[in-house]
Amino acid sequence: MLARSFDFFLQQVRQWRKEPLIPAAFLLIACGLLTFIAIAEEVQDERPHSYDEKILLSMREPGDTANPLGPPWMEEMGRDITALGGFTILTGLTAASIGLMMLYGRPRLALLTLVAITGGMQMSAGLKHLFGRPRPDLVPHGVLVTSASFPSGHAMMAAVVYLTLGVMLARTQTSRKVRLYIVSMSVFIAVMVGCSRVYLGVHWPTDVLAGWTLGGAWALTFGLIALKVDPRRPGDEGRADAAVKSDAETE
User: Fold this and answer.
1) Model confidence over 53-94: pLDDT tens digits?
2) Catalytic residue among 49, 129, 141, 203, which?
3) What element of type H or E holds 68?
4) What residue segments make up the domains of the chain, in order of their start?
5) Could you tell me which of 100, 220, 106 has the C-alpha nearest to residue 160?
6) Catalytic residue among 49, 129, 141, 154
7) Catalytic: 154?
């Protein structure tokens, strides 16, 4: 038993050498889950905390809580950004990305992506129903809202969808710069969507932070699963074809 456990540990170490970000991913997942749990415990008080109110009011014109900071076009831009975390955009983006994975010949990756995103949607809806936190009534809402406030569905699903797609699509690229760019843009969009929800007055900052942490942990978890489900590294197909060609020429 001890020998098998040691062999498994050595296998994991070898895998981490090939994928050095695996230990960091585990750490981030743990931090994300612990942060979400800590915020969820505070939300049980059913009262907005002072820092929630201060941050929300800091994004409003002094003395006029009906107007977000900045010119009118900035508020309109906030609505455009928040739409990136809406159901229609996320569904279309998911479908397009899954199609791209199929074109790359990665059906397992495509299926795992579908499971990750649909599962994330169900989890977000279930948590909203469980906590039932009211929307902020401190300022007027900049967009229409119909569900509970905690966690932020836009922030969470932006993290789930953009980070999941970013990690999955990055695994199809051979260039490290391209992979880094894809993941970085995924993080940037998820952050901007969450910030827009507070700017428009439809979420408390803790709603958004909880959505980010849980959505990020969810996406990273499925990113690690992808290493087992579809272990091929970028460029493996080309190396395999070259090996077959070399063998044929040798014969």
Assistant:
1) 888 888 888 888 788 888 889 989 999 999 999 989 999 999
2) 203
3) strand 64-68
4) 74-231
5) 220
6) 154
7) yes
